[in-house]
Automatic annotation (TrEMBL):
Key words, A-Z: Cell membrane, Membrane, Protein transport, Translocation, Transmembrane, Transmembrane helix, Transport
Keyword Calcium: no
Organism of origin: Salipiger marinus
Subunit (UniProt): Part of the SecDF-YidC-YajC translocase complex. The SecDF-YidC-YajC translocase forms a supercomplex with SecYEG, called the holo-translocon (HTL).
InterPro entries, alphabetized: Preprotein_translocase_YajC
Ranges annotated as spanning the membrane: 6-24
Identification of the protein by name: Sec translocon accessory complex subunit YajC
């Protein structure tokens, strides 16, 4: 391989490097933050789902499910990963 062949690949490598830092890396960071937020959900948190429903977590179930109260006496089961945003967090109960 001569130097002209290597010079042809340098722009491709630079483009991939720029794409990694502008697109791939921020997306990975966003996914990691979402997973951390979902893992920290607990009873009493007020959330917004990706479908736009606003409700209060009434129970965190096993298997990645939540029971969310969306109106007085109306509870629905949702998948934990569909939580888009946490509006208000509850404080953990103090240990006796």
């Amino acid at each position: 391989m001569d130097s002209s062949a290597i010079a042809q690949f340098v722009p491709l490598i630079l483009i991939f490097g720029i794409m990694y830092f502008l697109l791939i890396r921020p997306q990975q960071k966003k996914v990691k933050e979402h997973q951390k937020m979902v893992a920290a959900l607990r009873r009493g948190d007020q959330i917004v789902t990706q479908g736009g429903l606003i409700g209060k977590v009434s129970k965190v179930k096993e298997g990645g499910e939540l029971e969310v109260e969306i109106a007085e006496g109306v509870r629905v089961r949702i998948v934990q990963t569909t939580v888009a945003q946490v509006l208000s967090k509850t404080e953990p109960a103090a240990e006796a």
